């Protein structure tokens, strides 16, 4: 039985992970951490990791960057693996996560769906085929409760392109203040927020007289919850290091 500690258990994703975990015979959530301890779960919820008494195998984190860093310290102290799904980290926070992976296994992905990982491969292929003759723009759409912008996934897809483009691209988040034509080395990244949109990412390659658009639409939060549980199963017995959805998919 895989014993999970869930950080951010009372959030939108935390609640979905709690529900989805019940559909796995060999997974159980033994405790949760959340500043908001008002809701009742069938496991104890603590406002601070230091209060946790339960034994656990792996941490799943859907919270806020500051909360992720706090639970990361706890994971290191307990020498336990962690699945980080939270987004919106600063560069300094990202460095701390990478540094921590020298001590414990860290599964880190801004998008826990299998499909977005395929999209990352496809945009790399598109870039290699189309090259710099096509302008690249990314549009992401999410629900009106999302705090960070642009989405972690949009940045992940831009980084995937930059990886095969020798980091040639600069990211532009706002054209309003720029009174000039776009430069060839730009990737525009734009955020739409509204209603209950679960998550949409479009990568647009606009060239002379033709446009290619590679799009992923998440239809439910369950897709992310299932991905995080699979990631927890995958990382349980791994050595310290950084792991992502590609590692999980390649192991299937
Ligand atoms: N990687 C992926 O596939 C996905 C990532 N996300 C990311 O997961 C994060 C959470 O998303 P939602 O659940 O929609 O947000 P949410 O705002 O509904 O939930 C965040 C939860 O964290 C709790 N929290 C705040 N401070 C805390 C602390 N110090 N310790 C423990 N818990 C604390 C809040 O009380 C809240 O319950 C976001 O960064 C979002 O972008 C969301 C969906 C999929
Ligand atoms: O906040 C969300 O909801 C989501 N956040 C992730 C992101 O920032 O990329 C992943 C997913 O799109 C849902």
UniProtKB/TrEMBL annotation:
Residue numbers binding NAD(+): 8-13, 34, 85-87, 109-112
Active site: 142 (proton donor/acceptor), 146 (proton donor)
GO BP terms, alphabetized: diaminopimelate biosynthetic process; lysine biosynthetic process via diaminopimelate
Record's keyword annotation contains Iron: no
Pathway this chain belongs to: Amino-acid biosynthesis; L-lysine biosynthesis via DAP pathway; (S)-tetrahydrodipicolinate from L-aspartate: step 4/4
Cell compartment(s), UniProt: Cytoplasm
Gene3D superfamilies: Dihydrodipicolinate Reductase, domain 2 (3.30.360.10), NAD(P)-binding Rossmann-like Domain (3.40.50.720)
Keyword Calcium: no
Catalytically driven reaction(s): (S)-2,3,4,5-tetrahydrodipicolinate + NAD(+) + H2O = (2S,4S)-4-hydroxy-2,3,4,5-tetrahydrodipicolinate + NADH + H(+); (S)-2,3,4,5-tetrahydrodipicolinate + NADP(+) + H2O = (2S,4S)-4-hydroxy-2,3,4,5-tetrahydrodipicolinate + NADPH + H(+)
Its job: Catalyzes the conversion of 4-hydroxy-tetrahydrodipicolinate (HTPA) to tetrahydrodipicolinate.
Known partners and oligomeric status: Homotetramer.
NCBIfam families: dapB (TIGR00036)
Family: Belongs to the DapB family.
Name of the protein this chain belongs to: 4-hydroxy-tetrahydrodipicolinate reductase
């Amino acid at each position: 039985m895989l014993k999970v500690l869930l950080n951010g258990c009372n959030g939108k994703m935390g609640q979905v992970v709690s529900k989805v975990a019940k559909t796995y015979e060999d997974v159980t959530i033994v405790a949760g951490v959340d500043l908001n301890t008002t809701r009742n779960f069938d496991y104890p919820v603590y406002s601070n990791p230091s209060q946790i008494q339960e034994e656990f195998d792996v941490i799943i984190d859907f919270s806020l960057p500051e909360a992720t860093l706090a639970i990361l310290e706890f994971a290191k102290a307990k020498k336990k693996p962690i699945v980080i799904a939270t987004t919106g980290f600063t560069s300094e926070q990202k460095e701390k996560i990478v540094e921590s992976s020298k001590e414990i296994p860290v599964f880190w992905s801004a998008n826990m769906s299998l499909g977005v990982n395929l999209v990352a491969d496809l945009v790399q292929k598109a870039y290699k085929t189309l090259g710099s003759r096509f302008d690249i723009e990314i549009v992401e759409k999410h629900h009106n409760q999302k705090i960070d912008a642009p989405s972690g996934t949009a940045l992940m897809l831009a980084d995937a392109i930059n990886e095969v483009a020798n980091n040639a691209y600069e990211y532009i988040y706002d054209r309003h203040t720029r009174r000039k034509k776009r430069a060839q080395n730009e990737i525009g990244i734009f955020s739409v927020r509204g209603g209950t949109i679960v998550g949409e990412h479009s990568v647009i390659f606009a060239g002379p007289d033709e446009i290619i658009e590679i799009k992923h639409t998440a239809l439910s939060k369950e897709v992310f919850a299932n991905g995080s549980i699979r990631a927890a199963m995958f990382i349980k017995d791994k050595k310290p290091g950084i792991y992502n959805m590609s590692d999980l998919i390649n192991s299937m």
